[in-house]
Q: What sequence folds into this?
């Protein structure tokens, strides 16, 4: 992709505007989670229906992100970013005035269609603007946005919902989005030669079925169970769609999403580590609110505040780890960070009904400190091996895998928690029956069953964290094979993954 003269001379102004747009779009992705119960009551819809505000947003992102490699090559940074920001702002406005659920859902999906472009576009600009030896620091700043924005979302949302109407969440985002849009309109002045690219219709159809089916299937599995026809039906359709999509890309001279990025060993390795770590990361994000609010009776705001120090530490560490990456490479950082992640995740598998709030804060903060040393360095190390022409495809692939692995991690850990809770509940009830000497009253029996279910749920959460330990340990094992790559010389014969790792 031919870069603009503006980017070549001074990338910082453009990057600042892109970072601001990415920040509000990523913050928006987690902002509604705490507010869903209030919205459900206000709009008079069921829990299953209201979840579509989160599921629909994720689906639109997952379907559109694979097209971003094509969009980045086809359009200039200016046109693409302004279009994306305009869609995001329009969606935010529609959601802020929505007086019915269908209108609110439409607003959220329009928001998602804009936000899907933000991260791949920003990552591609960073890769194109900085030489390999300086990319770590630049990507560290991006890591701050990627990690800090979704992490503060629940805390901010909890405070707003506790004190104001849920519409304030959109009222707060809207002026920021308008401001970023105005800055982009007047400040982004890049130029780009017209590129004669057309999107392949079959690729778009297969991509939508493949990634959409996988995301919907995995995101539904936690609530509906793996044996639900809607779950395994969409998963099967997703797998078939994805296979056809991949085969189609290898037949095209200019693929929509080029899977040849996996010819480069360090990029392939970074994908494996990122997928497993992303799945492990969701354990605390999904299981902690259940433990804190349902088992411990801690308010949503206090639950969000517990996560805040970890978000702050991760935000502070991202630029620092970026600089360390430039100096020492990804291997030392990844191994150190993953050892911390595995140890702290194991400590979360030992939760009790009386674990101190302060202990939970410390454990979670240290865990986030460990993860901050892994995510962006590993991702940047993989992208550094790709030739310039494959940068849009590498960034689009990373963003797509982030969505899919998040959905898989959520589904897996929730289903483990549910099945193990049921197992422990049955075991505890049988044990309690065996020790009974007389039949308790109906009230006492109900109370006993409630207490046993609480204990069983706690054991189910601990078991789910243990699975998360195993997943993080897989990432740790792969981290020992990381090497500092050089940008690929496409004139040379490609090195196989086995040869590179050995």
A:
């Amino acid at each position: 992709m031919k870069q603009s003269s503006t980017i070549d001379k001074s990338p910082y102004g453009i990057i600042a505007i892109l970072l601001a747009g990415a920040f509000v779009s990523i913050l928006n992705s987690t902002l509604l989670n705490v507010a869903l119960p209030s919205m459900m009551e206000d709009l008079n819809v069921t829990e299953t229906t209201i979840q579509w505000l989160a599921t629909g947003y994720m689906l639109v992102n997952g379907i559109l992100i694979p097209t971003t490699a094509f969009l980045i090559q086809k359009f200039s940074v200016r046109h693409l970013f302004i279009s994306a920001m305009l869609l995001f702002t329009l969606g935010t406005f529609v959601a802020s005035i929505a007086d019915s659920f269908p209108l609110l859902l439409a607003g959220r999906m329009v928001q998602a269609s804009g936000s899907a472009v933000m991260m791949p576009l920003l990552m591609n600009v960073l890769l194109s603007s900085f030489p390999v030896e300086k990319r770590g620091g630049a990507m560290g700043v991006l890591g701050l946005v990627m990690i800090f924005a979704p992490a503060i979302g629940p805390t901010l949302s909890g405070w707003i919902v506790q004190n104001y109407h849920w519409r304030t969440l959109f009222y707060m985002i809207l002026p920021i989005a308008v401001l970023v849009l105005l800055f982009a309109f007047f400040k982004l002045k890049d130029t780009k030669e017209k590129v004669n690219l057309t999107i392949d219709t079959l690729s778009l159809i297969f991509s939508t079925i493949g990634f959409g089916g996988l995301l919907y299937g995995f995101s539904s599995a936690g609530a509906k169970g793996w044996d639900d026809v809607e779950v395994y039906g969409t998963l099967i359709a997703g797998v078939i769609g994805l296979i056809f999509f991949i085969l189609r890309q290898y037949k095209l001279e200019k693929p929509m999403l080029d899977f040849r990025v996996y010819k480069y060993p360090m990029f392939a390795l970074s994908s494996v580590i990122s997928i497993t770590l992303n799945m492990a990361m969701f354990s605390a994000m999904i299981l902690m609110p259940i433990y804190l609010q349902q088992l411990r009776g801690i308010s949503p705001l206090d639950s969000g505040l517990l996560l805040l120090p970890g978000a702050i530490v991760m935000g502070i560490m991202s630029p620092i780890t970026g600089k360390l990456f430039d100096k020492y490479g990804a291997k030392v950082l990844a191994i150190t960070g993953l050892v911390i992640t595995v140890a702290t995740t194991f400590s979360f598998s030992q939760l009790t009904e009386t674990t101190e709030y302060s202990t939970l804060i410390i454990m979670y903060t240290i865990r986030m400190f460990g993860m901050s040393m892994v995510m962006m360095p590993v991702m940047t190390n993989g992208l550094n091996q790709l030739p310039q022409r494959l940068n849009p495809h590498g960034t689009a692939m990373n963003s797509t895998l982030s969505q899919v692995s998040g959905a898989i991690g959520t589904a897996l850990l929730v289903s483990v928690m549910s099945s193990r809770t049921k197992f422990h509940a049955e075991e505890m009830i049988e044990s309690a029956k065996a020790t009974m000497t007389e039949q308790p009253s109906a009230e006492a029996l109900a109370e006993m069953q409630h207490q046993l279910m609480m204990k069983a749920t706690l054991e189910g959460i601990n078991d789910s964290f243990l699975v998360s330990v195993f997943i993080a340990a897989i990432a740790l094992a792969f981290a020992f094979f990381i090497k500092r790559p050089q940008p690929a010389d496409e004139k040379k014969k490609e090195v196989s993954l086995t040869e590179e790792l050995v």
In short: The chain has three domains: 1-194, 200-255, 258-502. Residues 131 and 341 are 30 Å apart (CA to CA). The first helix runs from residue 5 to 9.
